[in-house]
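Table S2 (text version). Query chain:
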Amino acid sequence: MPFLAIAQGKQTLEWKEFLKPAYVGVAAFVLLLWWGHPALIHATSLVRW
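Corresponding structure-token output:
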């Protein structure tokens, strides 16, 4: 069961582990794609196949 050890107090959750540069970069990339998704869909609809 996910997070059971944390809920039981056997393990701690260290928030600083989530602030690594790679994680921040991936999160920024995902947010950028999420924000730009409508423009990407519109742009691909204009492509003449």
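Notes on Table S2: The chain has two helices and no strands. The two ends are 48 Å apart (CA to CA).
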